[in-house]
Design goal:
The protein is of the alpha/beta class. The protein has three domains: 83 residues, 2-Layer Sandwich (Gyrase A, domain 2), CATH 3.30.1360.70; 180 residues, Rossmann fold (3-Layer(aba) Sandwich); 126 residues, Isoleucyl-tRNA Synthetase, Domain 1 (Orthogonal Bundle). The strands form four sheets. The protein has a five-stranded parallel sheet, with helices on both faces. Strand 1 and strand 2 form a beta hairpin. Helix 2 packs across helix 3. The radius of gyration is 28 Å and the shape is globular.
């Protein structure tokens, strides 16, 4: 119905004002308490026509009824609030029950989402989980919105940090070694554990470059497998694991040749610079140092060239909070490499501060003081972690209180939403209704609260489409909390099952559709559906 309304509104604007307004992303249509939907299109038209938005809105409102039969009224300073017939919502509920409501057909666009991409030098921590959970949901959201999606994890396995990892491991078991621990070595408790396993496999080895390399490979593989197991606890997986070492071997020279052939590089003081200022960066960047070594930037360029080469139309990188200054140069390099239009977006996943018993936990892998994902998954329900993380805007840091997250009550949003699903499941079992008995033939709602639930269900696809373009992932869990609130309130205020079977079936029909939307929303978030929940669980 929204699609039809947007199309009709576009036609009306073109007919009256000879102007075309781009409404395809629903920017000018919103859901409101003042009507079923509201549009602020008069403000956009006012800018172009140099007229009063309220007068424009009044004219559009009259013509929406005259030309298309839409009932509406105008509120200052120029919003048009539209009401749809009750039957529209009943028909939408029928679609909800029969299909994965709102899921778009494949639009032939390919999306690559890169997330986590942590160094294989230690266990994963909460900030990695934040990127992982967000990346998983965003991938599902993009697929729902019609895109083909590949999830990708980039492993930095070729830098100095891997050498330092091996040196740290070997230091703990070598009899002949330097007096001081490696300057940039890793001191976490896990290093000693890896060292014991390494010694058990290879024996006591001297502290040589050859053995450091051997220890590096052993530790890297061990930590990667550990990270994969940790992610599995939260159902986080990837289509592709891409290694920096492979990128260097296969795509570095090719990438450098393309940039050089395009005259986008120059020598200065024996170093090779990339002309990133030509694409909006604040200064040109060194990609090969004066000593012949490449900077970390060049492999990253090559990696994104590898993405472009695979034919992706949109690249989305979810990066850590220390990457803000990195965005302009990376964006510039992608503009240099792409042959056709390739959209590139960076989402910064801000820091998460863990609190326990009122105390702040440090999360430095090098000092050895951090809480691993394994510990978190053992201490806290993964569903709680997911819901808590997804309820916050990614670009904003937040404090995560472990003790509060462990509370199993209706004050905890994930249980609040899960309980609404379980409550409805129990209700349907109690009524023993066959799905074929659902009634979608009635024309009017006698109960305004039931209509409000049906109206809320109508919003779901557009919330998801908005997340697919804005990346504001918190909108989906917030929506589910709002919908659950309507359901719990309805359950409290009304007797759903009574002696009038026809009226009961009407109520059950809308609530059945509501359960489907909750199921769809929780599925996008990767959160468990609970058919039954008892009082001691909430």
């Amino acid at each position: 119905m929204i699609d039809k309304f947007v199309k009709d509104l576009n036609e009306l604007v073109k007919q009256i004002f000879s102007i075309e307004i781009d409404l395809k992303d629903y920017r000018m249509v919103s859901f409101t308490e003042h009507g079923d939907v509201s549009t602020n299109i008069s403000f956009e038209l006012a800018k172009k026509l140099k007229k009063n938005p309220y007068e424009i809105a009044e004219g559009l409102s009259k013509n929406l009824f005259k030309e298309y039969g839409y009932n509406s009224y105008v509120t200052k300073p120029g919003f048009i609030n539209i009401f749809f017939p009750d039957k529209v919502f009943v028909e939408e509920c029928k679609k909800i029950v029969k299909t994965f409501y709102g899921k778009k057909d494949f639009n032939k666009k390919k999306v690559n989402i890169e997330f986590i991409s942590a160094n294989p030098t230690g266990p994963l921590v909460l900030v990695n989980l934040r990127a992982g959970i967000a990346g998983m949901m965003l991938a599902k959201v993009m697929e729902y919105s019609g895109f083909y999606v590949e999830k990708e994890n980039y492993i930095n396995d070729a830098g100095n940090q891997i050498y330092n990892l091996g040196a740290s491991v070997l230091y703990h078991i070598s009899s002949e070694k330097p007096e001081k621990f490696p300057e940039n070595g890793y001191k976490g408790w896990y290093i000693k554990e890896i060292a014991k396993m390494f010694e058990k496999t290879f024996g006591n080895l001297n502290y040589t470059q050859k053995n450091i390399k051997k220890a590096s490979e052993f530790a890297k593989e061990y930590i990667l497998n550990w990270q994969k197991k940790s992610l599995k606890n939260f159902s986080i997986d990837f289509n592709n694991w891409v290694f920096e070492s492979d990128i260097k071997e296969k795509y570095l020279d090719e990438t450098l040749k393309i940039l050089t052939d395009k005259n986008l590089t120059y020598l200065q003081d024996k170093a090779l610079y990339l002309k990133t200022t030509t694409m909006g960066d604040d200064k040109d960047r060194v990609i090969i140092k004066s000593n012949g070594e490449h900077t970390y930037f060049l492999p990253d360029i090559a990696y994104h060239y590898f993405k472009i080469k695979r034919g992706f139309d949109k690249l989305i990188d979810i990066l850590g909070p220390d990457h803000h200054g990195y965005i302009p140069r990376l964006t510039a390099s992608i503009k240099m490499l792409k042959k056709d239009d390739v959209d590139f977006d960076v989402i910064i996943a801000q820091l998460v501060t863990i609190l326990k018993n009122g105390q702040k936990y440090e999360m430095s892998k090098r000092t050895g003081e951090f809480i691993t994902l394994d510990e978190l998954s053992e201490e806290i329900d993964p569903d709680v972690l997911k819901f808590t993380i997804l309820s916050r805007k990614l670009s904003q840091p937040f404090n995560f209180d472990i003790e509060k997250a462990k509370e199993e009550s209706m004050e905890n949003p994930v249980y609040y939403v899960q309980y609404s699903y379980a409550r409805l499941s129990s209700l349907f079992d109690k009524f023993n209704l066959n799905k074929n008995e659902l009634n979608f033939s009635f024309e009017k709602f006698e109960n305004k609260d039931l209509r409000n639930i049906a109206k809320k269900l109508f919003e779901f696809p557009y919330i998801v489409y908005n997340v697919a373009s804005s990346y504001e992932i918190q909108k989906i869990p917030n929506y589910l909390v709002e919908l659950s609130s309507l359901i719990h309130q309805f359950y409290y205020n009304y007797r759903i099952i009574d002696d009038d079977r026809d009226e009961t079936i009407k109520r059950i029909t809308i609530l059945y559709a509501a359960r489907e939307i909750i199921k769809n929303g929780l599925s996008l978030m990767g959160i468990t559906l609970k058919e039954r929940m008892f009082k001691n669980e909430v």
